[in-house]
Amino acid sequence: MPSMLELERIHKEAASAIEAARTVEDLDEVKRRYLGRKGILAKLFAGLPTLSADQRKRVGERLNALQHELTEKHGHKEATLHQQLQTTRTQAEELDVTLPGRRIRLGRRHVLTRTLEEMERIFFGMGFEVVEGTEVETDEFNFERLNMGRDHPARDTQDSFYLSGDLLLRTHTTVVDARVMVGRKPPMRILNSGRCYRRDAPDATHMPVFHQVDGFMVGERITFADLRGVLASFVRQMFGPQAVYRFVPSYFPFTEPSAELLVWFGNRWLELAGSGMFHPRVLEMAGIDPTRYTAFAFGLGVDRPAMVRYGIPDIRLFWENDLRLLEQF
Amino acid sequence: MKVLLSWLKEYVDIPQTVDELAERLPALGLGMERVERHESDAVFDLELPANRGDLMCHVGVARELAAANRTAIRPPATAARQDRTKTADAVHVDVREPQLCPRFTAVLIADVRVGPSPRWLARRLDACGVRSINNVVDVTNYVMLELGQPMHAFDYDLLQGGGLIVRFASPGERLTTLDGVARVLDSKTLVVADATRAVSIGGIIGGTATEITASTRRVLLEAAIWDPPTIRRTAMRVGVRTESSARFERGVDIGGAEAASARAQQLLMEVAGGRIASDLLDRYPSPQPPRQLALHWPRVGRLLGIEVAQTEGEAMLRSLGFGVTKQGDRLTVTVPSFRRDVERAEDLIEEVARHHGYDRIPEAMPVEATAQATRAPELDAIRAVRDVLIRTGLTEVLTVSLTTPKVLDELRLPSDHPWRAMVPLRNPLIEDHTHLRTTLLPGLLQVARGNIHRRVMDVLIFEVGRTFHSSGAAVLERRRAAVLMTGRILRGAWNTPEQVSTATFFHLKGVVESLAAELRVGRTSFTPVNVPWLHPGRAAQVSISGQPLGTLGELHPDVAASAELPVGVYVAELDLDEVLRQAVFQPQFTPLPKYPSLRRDLAVVVPQGVSAAEVERVIGEAGGDLLESIELFDVYSGPPVPAGHRNLAYALSFRSSDRTLSASDVDTAVVRITAALQKNLRATIRE
After folding, report:
1. Largest CB tally within 10 Å, which of A53, A151, A292, B182?
2. Domain limits at B40?
3. A contact residues 103-142, partner B, Cβ 8 Å cutoff
4. B371 in a structural domain
5. pTM (2 decimals)?
6. The last residue of a domain, from among B283, B316, B333
7. ipTM field
8. How many domains are there within chain B?
9. Do B346 and A161 count as a contact with CB atoms less than 8 A apart?
10. Percent with pLDDT over 70 in chain A
11. Is A91 exposed, middle or buried (CB count within 10 Å of its CB: 0-12, 13-18, 19+)?
């Protein structure tokens, strides 16, 4: 059995071996040698029963203290070495964080679709039912049912593309109003939007294809003041609460009285909508009694307001689909 | 139309400044295109409503301003001195089409000295954009600008037979008009003729043969009324639009022709020294009684949503020239002949609203209850399609629905292809827009080409839109979606294999699969297909439950080359009507699995030519109820896989909904799968 002096020597030796370990493997080796199941300390513990009771107590206490101290030392060393190892490893894994990120391309709506949806959402919020119509229409619905007979001069401004004697490409979404009114019982509040066609040669402000949003409301107590209120609310939601608008007399064959809506934007008056109270003949032709019911209707431009709002100088740019333009919205 | 402020002031007192008028006129519905300011005067260029022929003259505009200021106008004096030396039968007029020319007046003026107009007259015409010709012609134009009645002056001594006939032109009849164009007329054109030939196109333009020249001594002055639709159609057909036709199209006051003639006679005597040499000949076979309208005053408030005092409304109507009588709140309104546009009580209410002021209409909100706001389901469906395509990384484009059959040549379509059944426009305007599109693909190719020309090489786009198809006399509208992909999918793709970072067939297929999955259309299948515009080895037809939806694939190299596109352009087009018929928009919750799954990898070596779809079908059929999913994770050919074969590696997932599976459950299934693969596809399984 070793003397106490011998124990101190082992202590010193083990402590410096732990200290000297440079790698986790070295440290494991030291641990095995001193603290392992068959290590030096284990052997010393095994020899304790051969000692006298007095010695056994003294040596035993010392051994316990020794084991505790070395275990702790080993623990500290192990943590330090682990830390060093992680540092080395993560240093090796260092990235140049200034390299570009990997981005999948994000898709987006066309700026006109975005404008249309925005308008539609505003009217949806005011309780309008959103419906859809066809782009191919009949002369009867597109014109006659909207109080524009064969020789009505207003047809000049709505020069249309004919597909046959009777079929044409709709010149306005108002035609959908004339369609959906038939067979429905008031009150109703309906909106539709989509492509319209007029026989215009393409230039900076004209395209033969363009978009409109059209809405109307029929009831027993619908007034011109309601029309103004609905349009004013639309203007403020679309152009901001400070938006300035004008509501001035105009002429449309299918409304009486008629009004035009203009909004002050980008230092000019922007023509936003034609509107009015549906002409009694339009209601009659749809089978609605004009002495009992009144109705307002409005048709909003989409393309030109979008040009002005976003500062797009040429209407043809919408249809050119240059991705550098589309990706700005 | 241009009006001169100083001229207006002859007929009405105008307290407003030029700036105030520039605000006030649009508020009355007289659109202000432009204001030209002169020292003490101004010219307003007005955009007038299409139904207000009465406003196309100074007196008409003055009348609006009078009503706006609640005063009355001072119309010009029209008393003409009559010379008693005339012979009553010197002028004769035969109106053969009284329906289309309901009133025709003519008067003979002798001893005229044709020369330049006095400065005041020439200057007023010039300010209104009308060229000064000579004193006689200028007087007719002056009266038109003043009272709105277009007129025509003939050299009486050049008229053969000394009279006029209003008739249709005989087919092929010739007339050289004042614009210098020699025209051949058709039988739908209404002309004024002398005994032997047409001398003017009625209400539109005169002829050179009888025009006023320096040597003219006797003038036959026409002031007639023409049927607006006839004028409109003829002007369009002949291709001439004049100050005169613009007014007749909108309607000229049938009651004012005589007064206008008298005014012109008076001015002719003043500026051309003429002498009236005949009675006014007035062919007006069926004078119309003035229109009378009943207006129940409360209706005004009901329609406008504001209360306007009845007395105020009556005053407005009177200053606009209407006659008003009443019994309590029931008005009887007599419409003056110059207000052809006023036909119903609502038209009167608009007059009240305009002169009360649209800016005084309050902003109300409808109180009437209607159904709740809803959206048509098909609109939601289209929006869903658009959203999915955007989520797959594509940018929406919009292309014009008008096109030409030539674009289908670009796709190399045979003449009997259904897309060749295009609907033509009867009256196309430009040669690129003669038909309606039957497919969205040419539009997308055009967009890709445009972008690539501008060096935007990465084009990942789609369009959702309508196509148009002939079906007998009808036109069918179909909804379609098309996708085009070329270039890089990934930005910042350094050190990334091109297969991943750049658009390939499988990226395109992934888009179609995502769309099908998000719309829950059920099982989609892809089968090789041969269509003229796609690469024959890289094209597929996609179907749901056996119903074809469309095609996808790489653009055929020849098509790409002739479309000036690079290789590696991938396109798909789908019939959305069919997709949407199968779509499910309101999914139901499927309970999440309670028991764990077991995964087995299976490496299947099959001869080249056996498709992955066949392998998956066999695995699926043999796998039984426990087989939950099949996922391909590798495709390999080359040693050690025998030549002419390839190795498809699958991860199979097994799960039961009511217990935890044991290894032997799965082993049984795998043995079944292996046997089926060996038997049906001569496959071997690599360990």
Report:
1. A151
2. 2-68
3. 103-110, 112-113, 117, 124-132, 134-136
4. no
5. 0.86
6. B283
7. 0.87
8. 5
9. no
10. 98
11. exposed
